[in-house]
Design a protein that fits this description.
Chain A: It is a multi-pass membrane protein. The complex is a heterotrimer of chains A (276), B (367) and C (310). With 367 residues, chain B is of the alpha+beta class. Chain B contains ten helices and 20 strands. Chain B has two domains: 229 residues, Rossmann fold; 121 residues, Beta Barrel (OB fold (Dihydrolipoamide Acetyltransferase, E2P)), CATH 2.40.50.140. Classes of the chains: A mainly alpha (276), B alpha+beta (367), C mainly alpha (310).
Chain lengths: 276, 367, 310
Amino acid sequence: MTEGGERRAWIVAARIWIGIFLVFLYLPIFMLILFSMQKNQFASFPLMGFSTEWYRKLFNDGTLITALGNSILVSPAAATVATIISFLAAYAINRFEFRGRNLLTGIFIMPVLIPGLILGVACLGLLSRLHLNGELYSVFLMHVLLTTAPALAIIQLRLSQLPRSHEEAAWDLGATEWQALRRVVIPWALPGIVGGWLLAFTFSFDEFLIAWFVAGFDQTLPVAIFSVLKAVVDPSLNAIGTIVFLISGIVLVGVEMFVLPLVFGREQGTDSNPGV
Amino acid sequence: MQGGKAVATKDLELIGITRRFGEFVALDGIDLEVGQGEFVAIMGPSGCGKTTLLRIMAGLESTTSGRMLVKGRDLAAVPIHRRPTRLVWQDYALFPHLNVFDNIAFGPRLGPHVPSELRKKVLEMADLVSLEGLLDRRISQLSGGQKQRVALARAIITEPEILLLDEPLSALDAHLRIRMQGELRRLQQALGISFIYVTHNQNEAFSMADRVAVLNKGRVEQVGTPEAIYHHPSSRFVAQFVGMNNLFSGKVATVSEHYTEIASDNGPIRAVTGSKSPRIGETVHVVVQADKIKRATAHTSNENRINAILRGREFAGSHNVYLFDLPNGNEIKIVSEDEPGSPPEKLSGSPSDLYFSVRDAFIIGFQ
Amino acid sequence: MENSAIALRGAKVRTPNQSWLREFCLLPAVAWYGVFFFGPLCFFLWFGFWRVEDYSPVADFSLTNYREIFANMFTGSNYGWGIAQSLWVSVPAALIATTCTYLVVLAIVYGVPARRQRLALLLTVAPFWSSYLLRLYAWQIILAREGAINSLLTAIGLGEWRIALMYTQIATRIGLIHYVTPILIIILYVTVSNIDRALIDVSRNLGATRLQTFRKVILPLSRVGLITSVSFATIICLGDFLSGSLLGGGGGTSLIGRVPTFPDMIMSEYGSSSNLPRTTAMASILVVIMLIVLAISIRLMTPALKGNRR
């Protein structure tokens, strides 16, 4: 085989593999959306035709919608508080030089590395002692903690790209620390702040274990879905799933706009010769 | 003579500025005075402390000890945003989320201002630094030279008493650098305020500054006019850092009214006796500029003669630099303007006689 | 200048590194972490040593819970088999996920033109944003006995090829792999895209074939990323309860037998008994197992890091 031919063969193989992988990744999501709009009581072939029956059932039934409401309440609130906390912390870590700075950064990242099961049990243990468990705001409190870490990582990434001289220049031109923060640092950090919020929202919106342990009767959506799942086969799950995927899709568009440019640079490299 | 009058004639006085970072002494008792409307360059190799000094003047770093006065006023307790100094950064530090107009207007907008007057002032500034027509541009759309002008306008519009510049031309190409040198000098004269200009580039320092301060390892080695620094370096470090100088070391043998004779490893060398004369037996250095040493010219009694072995030639455009080995193993350089197209030296390794006038040899390094 | 009268003390100027803003900015985060992170964690470690009297926990420092757990390792509640099942599920899942993801990342970095790479990455990372629970549910409807795959096979007349994966640990692993791959994509992409292209060109130029270049250049330079990826995936899988519960059906079959995973045991322990201290003690044991995995991966990584040092 010629050199060029061999190279082409490798590239074709590589792309086929990416294709197989994408089918694996998206098959479940596709199936769920498909069966949410079919008459089938069970998710099995052949298809019986288009129907919005399960969506109607979902909205009439109420439990899942209530839980969705709880999640829509808790997740943005937790993400907002977490974003404020993590912006302040990231600013301090980025601007000041002090002992234990790296240690502090490490500690701030820890909650995402600790499995939800452990954190959930731990929180329940403490909160139940303090009689703070079993309400929606206990989920909020814990989710602020859990989502501070990812938000901090993104905001810190953005702030670390701000040349030190920009803030110094603002001071030098007569800006107080507060003015410099508002007129130079925050405008610069804005994509990071939005990206951090979106990531925090995602973590909170999808979080199951901690919410399961501390939520009590004010279930968030994942907890409610789990309860339904364990009990019966109910195609309205397909419907709520489709709605949730839709929300995630909107968040993802935001992530594409704000987070990925931070991670991968604004432009892709110019060298575009594929193949080893 | 102690009164306010003497103080008012100085734009800036640094008295014993010292800065330590743990064990490391970045600045060791810097004394410097800048007269009214003076252009002073601070020059030194990287790591000599020149940028730290500039940041101390701007208020970005604290001092370990020492005082700083601007027009007689002690700045010790003045925080950065209230200082009468402005810094122009090496990377310009322009705000990327603002356009040119908003960058220039940044300082005035921080306090009370009338928008229509501010607009007029910004336009004047843009005019002064030739930025007309670019005010709506984004920072990313500007060339290096244009960014430089925006940085200057942004600092000047706040009417500072002293402008501090941190290697502001180092990011520009050679051609633009030379043009900007002239513009900076004109700007400084038009504004009538003092510029303090930090650089490692001696061409920049010599072509713009009224006076040059040479820094080494956190100390001021020499302060003087460019001519004085170039022709009469006062220390071994300055002699080696500035220009292309050759150094000979030895002990003082005899001192007369016109010349001093030094016994060096390469034979006796005579140098002019300055206003201060060294003691006999003291170890000193003799500086001779590379273009003052001649090969095989007329030998008068007023010339020093040394033996050397030619090692090679470097072609440097308008002139040649010849490298010679001295008997004691040191190397010296001489610069000569050979006629163009002269054949490359075939006699590499051959012994030569080199001559230089007593009048071109200066003694440095004595107490 | 006659300045001898003035003491040349250090100017007490407040530089930008000294500001009340530092404390102000760090305070919310430190306070929140103190109360809702270190508080629970310290309490968590201690709570495992409490004892239960009349169905309510009493503060103590007793080893009763741990003694009970270790007594039930391979008899009664079979905690030991649960741990074994967890490892048997998690480690292969992590290895398979890392291998597949690594190949995808290699395919993206070396097989996709630069301007399309970002799209490819976005597509492979995107499922991370979809609900994990719903993805597991979707796998349920796909893998179920009368689910999407089997009904499709029957419908097209291939009934004898029907699969029986549901409620086995293989299904558990499918769910886990689906969960961790988008995260691994990021770790491995950062690793592979940081490999200097020039090294590959040099290797090819020196006459190495593609496979030799891969074995001698790309693979050694990916080592740290691969180890990170496997250990990270293993720890996530060890701590996961949902896939084992929903796809593995609790005690799904595997080579080890019909035993639930350890997290599943912890959750049912929590649900069935009111002995919260003992649940906590079990979770503490899970933490220790995860720390061991972490220690092993750091141990494996150290020579690789040393090798990279210039």
